[in-house]
Design brief:
This protein is α/β, with parallel strands linked by helices. It has nine helices and nine strands. The protein has a six-stranded mixed sheet, with helices on both faces.
């Protein structure tokens, strides 16, 4: 386990400006062009995260719980550096392995081998690191000569094997996971679960966003409850799950 891993968020907010349908409509733009009149569109501001502060240290297995739309995935993307906060600060010490948005960086016209390199670079691996693990990734997929073919010829099961193998080939001190990953047939799923368990065991920090109560109880020692982008409760896993399930029952 990496003892140097550390995540510190202070008063983080993430907002997105969204134009209304009326402002984006073809008719609205056509009228403006014909009348030579420019109308200033006022965007609607969506607050995805609001005043989020977290201190996550080595050894922490943190669960993020909350209803759909509460901000769980947005928070993971902030931790991964995909989203930058509108306000507040984010300090992440340690290499992040982001196990979500797994299909990003894949090209259906490129071969499996070419996509191993493309996706590896997307997740932040060095080219030399990808080249060194290329054979290991290929073996793990069990796809054999199909890796020489373009991705558009793959079945969905084959795609998932390749995506998972590349995503988990590079380890990190911090593992960010949006739901637990189950891929392929029963035999491959067992192999994938074993690899994922090993990666999590070696990581300094795990941050898991999930609705799976049993998984959270067996994996996490801390939890936070998000509601409308805010942390409304934080503490021991059982305590936060009890509050979450009670809140969900009233919704």
């Amino acid at each position: 386990m990496s003892l140097a891993a550390h995540i510190l968020l202070r008063n983080v907010a993430v907002t997105f400006p969204v134009l209304s349908f009326r402002d984006r409509s073809l008719r609205s733009r056509f009228v403006s062009a014909v009348t030579l009149r420019r109308t200033l569109a006022v965007p609607h501001i969506v607050t995805a995260l609001n005043d989020v502060s977290l201190d996550i240290r080595a050894g922490d297995r943190l669960a993020i719980v909350g209803a759909n739309g509460a901000g769980k995935t947005t928070l993971l993307r902030v931790l991964a550096g995909i989203y930058h906060p509108t306000a507040g600060s984010v300090d992440v010490q340690g290499r992040c392995l982001s196990l979500f948005d797994l299909s990003a960086g894949f090209d259906e016209e490129a071969t499996g081998y070419e996509n191993i390199i493309r996706r590896g670079l997307v997740i932040g691996a060095r080219r030399a690191e990808i080249d060194a693990r290329r054979a290991e990734i290929a073996e793990f997929t069990e796809l054999g000569d199909r890796l020489d073919l373009p991705l558009r010829t793959y079945s969905s099961g084959m795609m998932l094997r390749l995506i998972f193998a590349v995503a988990t080939a590079v380890e990190g001190e911090i593992v960010l996971l949006d739901e637990w990953i189950g891929v392929g047939d029963q035999q491959f799923r067992r192999k994938a679960r074993q690899r994922l368990d090993e990666i999590v065991a070696r990581a300094g920090i795990l941050v898991l966003a999930s609705h799976d109560v049993d998984l959270i109880k067996s994996t996490c020692n801390r939890a936070i409850l998000l509601q409308e982008g805010r942390i409304v409760a934080a503490g021991a896993t059982d305590e936060i799950l009890s509050r979450y399930l009670g809140t969900a029952g009233r919704d």
